[in-house]
Amino acid sequence: MAVPPARADGAPARRRRGPYAKSAERRQAIVNAAFEVFATRGFRSGSFREVAERVGMSQTSLLHYFPSKEELLIAVLASRDGVEPVLDPDVLSGLAPDDERIPAVRFADLITTQARANQEVPGVIQLYAVLSGEGVTDDHPGRAYFTERFAGLRADYAADLERLRDLGLLRKGVDPAVAAATIVALWDGIQLQWLYDADAVDMSRALRDYLALILPTSPH
Amino acid sequence: MAVPPARADGAPARRRRGPYAKSAERRQAIVNAAFEVFATRGFRSGSFREVAERVGMSQTSLLHYFPSKEELLIAVLASRDGVEPVLDPDVLSGLAPDDERIPAVRFADLITTQARANQEVPGVIQLYAVLSGEGVTDDHPGRAYFTERFAGLRADYAADLERLRDLGLLRKGVDPAVAAATIVALWDGIQLQWLYDADAVDMSRALRDYLALILPTSPH
């Protein structure tokens, strides 16, 4: 997802200040505060009260925006979906500007860079693991979010892999839709193992090795 | 894991009937009853009371064996770890008895057959997803179980893949330890997506395609 547009002086673009915009800003402030509280204190011990205090709001007002802790936690996760990682500037350094492998290298680098970035926010990854597990139950407030998130990720990666296939960069016989679901699955699963034993698994290595298998021209 | 030895007449082998054996049998009866209750009623609505009734035991006695619902649920999952799937008898039908690819075909078939079998017990898979997600939190009774389970699975698959590498059946450049963690991760992750939208993903296809990439001589 795109980041908000910025002006030349680096300040955020001016937004319409109607009631909706104000409410959206307040909502974003709550999500930011919740991220800080849950990332530092853990999401089990972090409380609504702390989040409310941090944004200078009563708990009753906070409940107007987020009726349950689960819904606030899911909003924290959803806000992370829009964050694009900073790509490694060196990743293309060995390639000519017109090297035909560049799209495959960029695709693989975006994923492995994001996986490395996730290691810096273990509280968020833990939150993701717990909620995505709990969300499979029928009545969980996160069920719709995760169902849509998975469908969206699969569609995005499948479209990327179809483009790479059309450029002749996808290994012959690899199905873009299956590989898209596999990337998402491998990523979730290796993060889960990492949360249980961080020293035992190398998240970005596992992803890089799989991507090297399906995009064999990549130098990874 | 091995199944209990059976006598020629099909009855289970005779066991020593000491107090420990009796206690272990009672424990197993509870786990079996809990499996039935949680698989049919769902593990949120299935209760200790129902499990106790089914084994003709008071709830207090049941708490002696399993002090919390989580511990009982984890015992249900652990009991499933020992179940080996029935292998497809046709999987080797196209191969000569001395075909050198047989160990790779068997390895891949064991995994994809188990994945298909899991689709028949969605309640157990849901239970696994919820508990393995919750278990990442420090104080969860499942943390030790899942940490050991993941380490054991990675070690087992890595040993299998090293043997396949020594037989020349593993793709050159594939690291057995990384591939072992990847199989477990992909499996967990694709099951999670399947729980959210069973029509959108094909679990055994995703596993089969990955195994075909790392074991390229496999006819899959």
UniProtKB/TrEMBL annotation, chains A, B:
Task: Tell me a Gene Ontology molecular-function term this record carries.
Answer: DNA-binding transcription factor activity
Q: Which top-rank group of organisms is this from? A: Bacteria
Pfam families assigned: TetR_C_6, TetR_N
Keyword DNA-binding in record: yes
Where the record puts its DNA-binding region(s)?
Answer: 47-66
Extent of Low complexity compositional bias: 1-11
Disordered as annotated region, ranges: 1-22
Q: Which UniProt keywords apply?
A: DNA-binding, Repressor, Transcription, Transcription regulation
Its recorded name reads TetR/AcrR family transcriptional regulator
Q: Which organism is it from?
A: Labedella endophytica
